[in-house]
User: Fold these one by one.
Assistant:
Number 1:
Amino acid sequence: MTKKIFRSIFAVALTVFLCSVVVIMGALYGYYSSNQMKLLGSQVELASQGVELAGVDYLKSLTADDYRVTLIDSDGSVEFDSAADSAQMENHLERKEIKDALKNGEGQATRYSSTLMERQLYSAKRLSDGRVLRLSCSQYTWWTLFVGMLEPVVAVFFAAVGLSLFLAFRLSKRIVEPLNKMDFDGENPPEGYYEELSPLVSRIESQKEELKYKEAELKRRKDEFNAATKKMTEGLVLLNEKGKILSINDSASKLLSISSYCVGKDILLLNNSFEMQELIGKAKEGRHCELIVPLDDADYEVTASPVMTDGKVTAIALLIVDITEREKAEQMRREFTANVSHELKTPLQTISGCAELMQNGLIKPEDVEKFGERIYSESKRMITLVEDIIGLSRLDDGTVDTNKEPVNVKETVSTVIDILKDSAQRKNVTVSLSGDDVTINTVKRLLSEVVYNLCDNAVKYNKDGGRVDITIKEQPDFVSVTVADTGIGIPGSAINRVFERFYRVDKSHSKEVGGTGLGLSIVKHAVKLLGGDVSLESKENKGTSVTVTLPKI
């Protein structure tokens, strides 16, 4: 502490001295430059009088080594120059001091001379015949001024350093000595040697008590955490920001086939699979991610959740779940869906064609209207079912085109509303659109499919004379699309199941309106592929509100 105070005092004193020297040098530099320009103006005044009396010959007779003399004609051409061949010099009409002299009679300027390769002061005066006489000289530099004052500056510098060292040493020792004599670990620390230290002593005592309490609370929570995680069937691993294990429960040790004594070791040293490297890498970047990691002929779903503090990753939580059986069942379901879709599509299209023939009068008139309409209606409904199954299967398999592009959300919703206009009119349902006009980077076809399914459901399951209100809201990082209707609603017991495949709240009503039970499942999977989220609120006989949240990028 003494060294820090010593260095601080010494640094402050030395900094003040150096700043003072710089300020003084700056002031002197400005003063000398100003005087130099005034002297140059006086010299050009005297020289102009000589030229007025004796002409150019007067300039040739001058032996002023400190000044450069130039005579410029009114058109800017150089007539005479004491330092260079006037015939080789460029036109000076655009030089500031020349322009000012021609206009006002006198002109001054400061700039770098490419001929002499140094910074010059220029002073010019217009003669009675319109020509301009200019004198220039080298401007004083910082270095020139410093060299001229070097001896007194060095003497003052060493004196200042010595005095700063002495004062810094004495002051730091005087400040720290009473503090070193204080006993903060005792039960009753003595009053400070400085009266100002009394609040500090009191605060330290208060913080000591607070630390004891927090230590006990931390131990209690740790015991509770260990007890809870020990009973978990899922594996739980806590890592620090560098990927080293802070805590691991018994289930994780068994699933990963590692010892519970691995605390403090890098997780990648224990499991260096590509999947684990990718998972930990994304988590360190602050991204929540899930991966299927195959281990010992089994599949595990490993979820990595970064713990953020002040925008930085301070810890990583790994949740490990054995999903071997679930993955097998899911694979079987996907294969079943694909096979059923393939087998049913061709005959259903045939049924649809027969129904069209009946409607066109190619069947007996007495059978056409009733029989044909029913077959055609059922075939169209089943074809829709097949198409929904195929679409859902593609979402599951990840075979859909996920190339993103700029998409105007409001325009996309408006297009869907136009498509459903006839359906809404038949149901006497009013559809309205409001909210922000925003463009996001997403998959346009999937967005259209999501909005279509939500709006189609809102119209189908609405009441006669009902409403469908679509609202678009823009947030800093995402956009939400809410589809709210005044329809039949969903019972509370069914809300958690409506996103399941083939689940229908009211099967008879769904059949009546042509529902397949896949619309919300398609919405859920499509939104997930788009990196968004979907939520639903509903009250029976009052209506349903579905909100889709999508990232802007």
Number 2:
Amino acid sequence: MRRLKTWESRALPALIVFLVVCLAYVQAPQTQEFHYDDGHSLVRNPHIRNLENLPDFFKTRSMFGENPEDGMYRPLVLVAHSLNFAVTGLRPGAFVALNIVIHATSAAVIAWALTLLLPMRIGLVAGLLFGLHPVQSEAVHYISARSESLAGLFVALSVGAFALWIAGDRRRQGLRILSLGSFILGLLAKATAIVTPALIFLVAWRAWPDRSGRGALRAAFPWMVISLVYFIFHQLVKTSPLTPLRPVVVQLATQLKAVVHYLISFVMPIRLSVLPQFQESRILEPAVLLSLIALLSLGTVTWRHRQTIPGAAAGLAWFLICLSPTLVMPLNVLINDHRPYLAVAGLIWAAGTFAHHITRSVTIPLLLIAFVLTWQRSDTWETERSLWSDAVVKGPQMAIAHYNLGFAQHIAGQSDSATAHYRMALHIEPDYVRPLNNLGAIMREEGRLVDARKILHRAAELEPDNAEVLNNLGLVATAQGDAQDAVSILLRACDLSPSTGEIWLNLGLAQRDAGDPSAAMRSLQRALQLDPGLRNRVAVTP
């Protein structure tokens, strides 16, 4: 009876957290559009549309998106996407709804786990803060960030089950198996779950503060073995492209500054953005040195007081452990609000150490503020234009933010506004090919063929193997009556992107204008094979 009461008392905070978090995001499924990387990983990814592909997700990384070369090994995420599509079709709101369930479950698991480490009331508040904190909203609204929340869910479950196991529950072996199994699932969601053994060690060491660490190391050994096996598998099958995007020293310096940014965002989540204004840094830059000093000072203080405030030290260690892969991993995007998803639990753990000094008159308003801020972020994520308008306001010197806003306006038919943001992106970054390409496309649509050809030639010089640029350049040549040149350009584009029906269509039309009907027929038929939806744009005579 005692054991039953204990489990009921632990389950109740988790249930409360789940329901409140779902309520905070109740309007999120009203989102009208996919965002950012959702295009290549979801919208244009044919693999998630057939449940027969589920076994293949675990064999290769090539099915993660439309481009096999850019794939990542996250089979569990693809399974979730496929099941989502099978039930609801390609509806953005439905995908967001599943993200809400994943996040609310993660918050519930965090609440359950923290009730093992903190008083019940504090564990409940901590779980609510994890689920309601506005910095977590990106992992809900941004569907491609499902990998972060899914991995976070299973890592939290793994650590929670382990914490209950070492606490002396009689169902020890079952909990241990649950912890190990959850860890494996976390790895199948995202490789960053590889930090789990370090978190397991941390919790064991925290549970046995009188030991030297050998016992904690032995307890964490099975998780370490799984990590090693996964790492070897990762390297042998090349499950993820780890092309160095910048020198290691630059990556380290930049991410040291990013860690401080995440700390500030946790304390003051008032200027959250899908793409914060953030630049690469060098090791001797003042901002990097100040970040290093701040982190060393914070670490020193918590370490010196680890006996009196052990939760603060453990929570900070959790935060840094979760972010450690980003210090050296090659990251295309320097900083994201969804990246510290699980790391936030460490900061909440640390804050929970002092929570007994905080009354309900403080915690309730704090949670209400978090609830309101999270609710407001749902409006920001409703459309691509609302999302990138917000990003431009908060990061006016981010070229990619201006480009993405311009592209959203371009798609909506707002050519003048799109042109202004494309030009602003080029003012910030003159050799940015994407806005150059899209400016050329707008000029072609407006009949400014000479200007369009000039700007597209510049884009082609910067990226000679960009099929999209060559396609637009070929269209301009066709419009100018230079059919032979158009054919030459579009043949090159087809070689670079042989599975794009649109380019084959344009090639066929150019070949027709060049007086080669047989070649035109072959190209047009190829276009229809690749994309039957093009049939309304061309009539092919058998």
Number 3:
Amino acid sequence: MRVIIIGGVAGGMSAATRLRRLDENAEIIVLEKSGHVSYANCGLPYYVGGVIENEKDLLLQTPASLHARFRLDVRVSTEVLAINSAKKTVAVKDLLTQETMELDYDKLILSPGASPVVPPIPGIERGMVLRTVEDFEKIATSVGKSPKSAVVIGGGFIGVEIAENLIHRKIPTALIEATDQVLMPLDPELATLVAKEMRSKGVDLHLGSSVVKISPTNVELANAQVIDAEIVILAIGVRPEIGLAKAAGLEIGTRNGIKVDGFNRTSNHDIYAIGDAAEKTDALDGNATLVPLANLANRHGRVVADHICGLKTRPVKTIGTAIVKVFDLMIATTGWNEKRLVAANRPHQVIHIHPNSHAGYYPDAKQMALKLIFDPKSGEILGAQGVGIEGVDKRIDVIATAMRGGITAPELADLELAYAPPFGSAKDPVNMLGYVAENVISGVSKVAQWHEIDEYREKGYELLDVRTASECGNGIIPGAINIPVDEIRDRHQALKNKNVLVNCQVGLRGHTGSMLLKELGFNAVNLDGGYLTWINSPAAIKLKEMSK
């Protein structure tokens, strides 16, 4: 059996090495257009920033090492020109010798990846993209010349990573993002935390701005602002590389990726597609989606190898779990965000908490922000997000695992997680999310969101801040009165309305206060996530800007 694999990075090499482990006699040919295979492309921004000093550390394998261990025929600098699915052949060109040839296959695996989005902006040819080792070598060479200014266009994962690393190299850097926030998988009240961190570390952040022209020394924005740009880096996003598949008559899906079944077979069952070029199945709604993540590519490569070799395998759906480092922050997400759920008109409930990374009495505990989204009736977890200095990764990983296992939001309270003061709390943040979810679903407590405050005002609710007077002195939601939670029993007569919207700093005292007020005959609603969620929300930021 001859298996030809087009693309030799994450998915392609996972398929190739798994195939060899299962079948010593198969002829396995890997064709890679670039000059490198099996490289850690997620580490490339850190090579640009000098955090990873040696480029060789990112080159995991070479054609020679792959042949020595796995007897793989790996051909770099080799472009596939066309696929003839009827004849089961591929037309191939050696980019070094310009020699062309035709290779036949029994099974073909497409792993061509994705291509960077390059918009039709005047002067765009000056922009450098970030995809291959060669791309980053070009950027690293430019950075090595110590440019006096840099502009990154695009505020997604790669954009914020490269901006951080340019700052690490002490290069004045501006980041331009056309939408009103960085990191679109986040909801806005968490994205603001990231923007704040970036600005505090020196990134000149322009949100809601688009580039209309790139000149030899600068870029011009739609608002006529001109920004110095000795170098320009494009991180706008990627598109599935579908040219070969489309020309071969393979079916293209609704998301403009290669359509595949649960075993990653294309419309031609002798041809498979994996990685960024292939559509995935969303675990939450069963629809096609695009998720350009290396772990999924690796997993699907294994699935394809197993299927070719006749092993029983299982379809792999995705919930889109991802994490990124932005200076001192870690930002992680899984599942759907609130914006997507609203757009899909899907019922959902949101809760926010701001716990410490470990026991507060143990030194150096760091506060984080966690958001959980779940079905208000069934408790099905629909998504989660976290931002913090430490501890976010393991909490999002636990929630992602819970989603995979069908554990509901209230059942997060039941999880037995490793605890000792240096590592966590007796009530882990994940457990706390479960407790809050249980209270909300059972009707024990009612919560309002940061963007609903004005709605509650219009309904006649009185705003009550139950923090201490000194806390309120550092900032309070406009119009709120202050009665500390420990004084509610003695001072509740000061409330003029039986309908009360309660807030504290993070939501815990607000819950206690609202429960007490209910016992005292009030209709009390707790502001989810408290003042800390509100003050970092777009609503508070807009209010602050209006008051200037």
